[in-house]
Design brief:
This protein is mostly helical and 283 residues long. It has 13 helices and no strands.
Length: 283
Amino acid sequence: MTQRRFEILFWQFAILVVILAVWQWGYDACKATLPKSLVPGILDPYFISKPTAIWSSFLKLACFADKAGTSACLSANDNNLWIATLVTLKNTWWGFLWGTLAGIAAGLILGRSEFLAKIFEPYVVALNSIPRIALVPLIILMFGLGDLSKIVTAAIVVFFVLFFNTFEGTRSVDRDQIAAARLLGASEMTVLRTVVVPSALAWVFASLTPAVSFALIGVIVGEFIGAERGLGKLIIEAEARANAAEMMVSIFVMMIVGIGLAYIVRRLQSHLLRWQPQFDQQQ
């Protein structure tokens, strides 16, 4: 490990320790030393709990601290932390996958056809102007409280992110490369496969990382409004009991899920774009 890398890890760890320390003892210390009007309300454990309380809630929700035993707890609770995480992760994955495939396909088609782009432009602009979150109640009404409504919500959110980036990436392909490929006798599909898609990949992958987060947001919002299982349902149930610790457990799990998915996307990006200098150096 290089000296520079060690320094970066050291400061990252130091910042984390400071944050946890302030979070755990900051509010009590401020109450003991500062006038009441100067005590930061954001540190109030009623709103954000404390790391120790969050850890205790994690053990409870994960069925590690149940007196009846872990197996009995998992069997009795059909929306325990593990099942809720798996449900949310599954719906995020499928919503992300279908939204990505549809967005890339539509972006490539309209990006390669000026005629179709002009026809569908007003409809794309109109649909994109609708806040996707506003469609969630309608989607739940159409597809029910089950997993399908969450997948559809995530797919719709992801679709527009991928569509616009793919569209712009397709439009930005070097025209001289396309002309050279056609001069050599390449068909439209060959041009698409060997010139357009590789050139647009950088644009596509630039949108994949935020698309993962948007897919997770879409699923969670759907679970907020109505769901049978999932991390969003855990948060809503904890909010009804004013239990900040349990809400923070679900939030941290979502953060870990999002980091894991973003890491997978970046690794896939560095593999597929390894021919580009900035990714070749990371190999």
